Amino acid sequence: MESMSLDNPVFRVFLGHSVLVLFKTCLMSVITVAVYYGSPGEKTINKDDAGKGVRKNKKSEALANVERVRRCHLNDLENVIPFVILGLLYVATGPDIESATIRFRIFTISRFFHTIFYLFAIPQPTRFLAFLAGFAINISMIYRILIPANF
Amino acid sequence: MESMSLDNPVFRVFLGHSVLVLFKTCLMSVITVAVYYGSPGEKTINKDDAGKGVRKNKKSEALANVERVRRCHLNDLENVIPFVILGLLYVATGPDIESATIRFRIFTISRFFHTIFYLFAIPQPTRFLAFLAGFAINISMIYRILIPANF
Amino acid sequence: MESMSLDNPVFRVFLGHSVLVLFKTCLMSVITVAVYYGSPGEKTINKDDAGKGVRKNKKSEALANVERVRRCHLNDLENVIPFVILGLLYVATGPDIESATIRFRIFTISRFFHTIFYLFAIPQPTRFLAFLAGFAINISMIYRILIPANF
């Protein structure tokens, strides 16, 4: 049977979870803009964004907050994008639906918690544990993909 | 019918547009190097790149220009990579070719404009509007993918 | 024949190489943490990570080392993720297995060398040449994908 097909129930479950984490990743752009305009202080990342009367060379509260959101966004790129690509390859190896669903769910839930812990600056090791859960899922999918792989 | 097949006309249109935006994203690396060596001033991002007689701790014109290109590159990673992955999943849901082509075209054109606006520091809101068009396409594909998705 | 299927020998070779480079990319997160805790000095990227007695506004040896690993990680995102996506599309165009295997191998080997050259700060142009090899493979796959593409 074709793997990337709506007739494949594992692919439908993959669709749901990958879309959720990609939506969350895309939302980080919106949160960046919201935090940028919602924070007090100077805003001088790009010259063309700077309005009149803006002094330079002083890192404002707004920039510090935005940098936190951006690091969180970058962490998503480092983890969510590999998850979606690995998940697609993993679906093509024909896993049973129960183990695939568990893997996709643990990853999705852990990444939502990771974002909450990061954005609200919850003390460690909460964020690290959320990262670790998602990371472990990626490694376990890599292991499953390696079995039918050739070199 | 198989979705990721040259027999699928929607997939062929997806191929063309995703290759264009991925090519543009890859080109950012070349532009980074070109701006780096084309700009005057000190170049000290990496110790192993620094030649003799280079003073440290002073941000040069070259580095400022390079950082602009790098932010543009990062913005591509944040938007183009999700587009290509979402587009692949969207093609698998079997959209009609007219609405798929319109989505792919709007995204591709908006990202080329986004890069031009960013690199030449055209005053806002030009760049923001170009970003918004691409972002809206990604969200609309997420919505279409969610319909056949399971959890 | 279906392209993303274990019956397709080109897809199996793609699986092996893409999993290797994605595994290496995921490992960068672990290396970041290892370098962070293995280096002397102050560690103040995030407020919630800072312990007691940590002074601010002074870039420590630990942070400098971590930033090198992070730039290497970002370079992977810029090159490995496009490779895996382009590779998947390239496999769908039905290349013969010899030329596909050579492309995947050159890319994989060049990226492992790139990481070694970057992390151990081997003098240029070693890292640049490793980057160039991977970049050339991506461009050559873009060229092959463009042939059957529509717009």
TrEMBL record, chains A, B, C:
Localization: Endoplasmic reticulum membrane; Mitochondrion outer membrane
Query: What's the top EC group for this one?
Result: transferase
**One Pfam family cited in the UniProt record for this chain:** MAPEG
The record's keywords, sorted A to Z, are: Acetylation, Endoplasmic reticulum, Membrane, Mitochondrion, Mitochondrion outer membrane, Transferase, Transmembrane, Transmembrane helix
Question: Can the keyword Transmembrane be found in this entry's annotation?
Answer: yes
Catalysed reaction(s) here are:
RX + glutathione = an S-substituted glutathione + a halide anion + H(+)
The similarity annotation says: Belongs to the MAPEG family.
Protein name (record): Microsomal glutathione S-transferase 1
Lineage of the native species? Eukaryota, Metazoa, Spiralia, Lophotrochozoa, Mollusca
